[in-house]
Amino acid sequence: MAGTTWEQPGKGTGISTSSVNQISEGHMVMQISSSYENVEMEEAEHPMNGAAGPCFGAVEVASDGVEGGGICAFVDSAGEKVVLHWQAEGMDQSGALTGNWTLSGGTGPWAEAQGGGTFSSLTDPESGKFVNTITSSVTMP
Fold first, then answer.
1. What is the pLDDT of residues 12-58, one digit of tens each?
2. Is 110 helix (H, G, I), strand (E, B) or coil?
3. Which domain range does residue 28 map to?
4. Hey, what's the torsion of the CAs at 95, 132, 109, 54, to 10 degrees?
5. Which of these, 109, 120, 115, lies nearest to 137 by C-alpha position?
6. Whole-angstrom distance, CA of residue 52 vs CA of residue 127
7. pTM of the predicted model, to two decimals?
8. Residue 48 CB burial class (10 angstroms; 0-12, 13-18, ≥19)
């Protein structure tokens, strides 16, 4: 819907693979590649509902914190492309990577869309399956 701001939670699911480079005890660099199978928002009308696609990036985890980020290239349920950037800021007690994401363009309505939110992404190291719990504030033109 044009001129609408969507503020609601959702979750993305899919498969993630990580390449971990151990630097020292408690210090590592991870290369992350995720394939989102589905983004499910609280309301079916949310423009990100049904989006899917790849995300990739790198994160450094050290005793003084978490730093890094990456980019996602999704295709929404209408076939339009949307690009978002994510920035890691920490890890919670469950081991989930946490941080913020922002929209940065795309095709159709995504070319002028604005917004972002937070994320908390937890991956099962055995299966590679992940659940990324997000908040969103997305304004469509």
1. 999 999 999 999 998 999 999 999 999 999 999 999 999 999 999 99
2. helix
3. 5-139
4. 80
5. 115
6. 19
7. 0.93
8. buried
